[in-house]
Amino acid sequence: MEKKNIDWSNLGFGYMKTDMRYVSNFKDGKWDDGVLTEDSNIVISECAGVLQYAQTCFEGLKAYTTEDGKIVCFRPDLNADRMIDSAKRLEMPVFPKEKFIDAVVETVKANAAYVPPYGSGATLYIRPYMFGSSPVIGVKPADEYQFRIFTTPVGPYFKGGAKPIVIKVSDFDRAAPNGTGNIKAGLNYAMSLHAIVTAHEEGYAENMYLDPKTRTKVEETGGANFIFITKDNKLVTPKSDSILPSITRRSLVYVAKEYLGMEVEEREVYLDELENFAECGLCGTAAVISPVGKIVDHGKEICLPSGMDEMGEVTKKLYDTLTGIQMGRIEAPKGWIKVIE
Ligand SMILES: *Cc1c(COP(=O)(O)O)cnc(C)c1O
Fold it and tell me: Is the C-alpha dihedral spanning 287, 60, 236, 193 positive or negative?
């Protein structure tokens, strides 16, 4: 298969239309068989549930080429499970797990020419999503839904190495107690936009959100979970019901324990203990880990000992091990790598 003529290593993180996308409709209480289509436009009622009351959820994962030339993706079963949780919480129909994984495989196969070559640092980002498509004006769940997957090639997240970022403790909240923070819903992002635009204007790369109830505990950023490394090499990651369960974070916890023999603590992390940590990172599919060099809490600067020049030593080990597993350089735990072709 001939690859598209794309300058892979200079791609940004933006949308580029690819050849095919997957569409399945839910009507009369059931999902249809689903098809691949060239049509990238969606026509829905002006009163669709998604447009009026934001009834929508999504997932994000990547396909890429391994060292031995296979096209694979990473733990799509966990994306399927998480989308099921999101759908239930938003009163949307569940898109069955096996069907989800098959749809991901079919969509990537149909766009194989856009999967970047090994070593380019680029990947094919996969975006499954679902929304209420039928008219809703009185507040209730829609009767009809559409599940879709598109793909878009994205560049290496860090061009020229991962530089530590500076983040701020936000005065805005991301997720209410007993709210929707633990599902991947568009609504969580809509209300984070003002907070992130404000943080960027102030010169910060990201927001650190606290637990809204006591504002003493660390939650996550707008789109990535935290990991911290203690001075005696333990991995600490916040535990909270309002954090989105990152697949990258859960994989790093496993890697820390099983590959690096580290001790791991998943527990509440207090704002006033941050200065004791040696390293800090943000984890998510896009970057795997972004190192944090400094956290600013209302003028008080917490400088991680790992500094502002490069990723902390332990964070780097975690990063290299997980990306090594993803790229086929290190043997993966059973079931982590889904071979597409
Ligand atoms: C998607 C997402 C993450 C990262 O999850 P991954 O599965 O690792 O990509 C973290 N936080 C939020 C709020 C997210 O939406």
Answer: positive
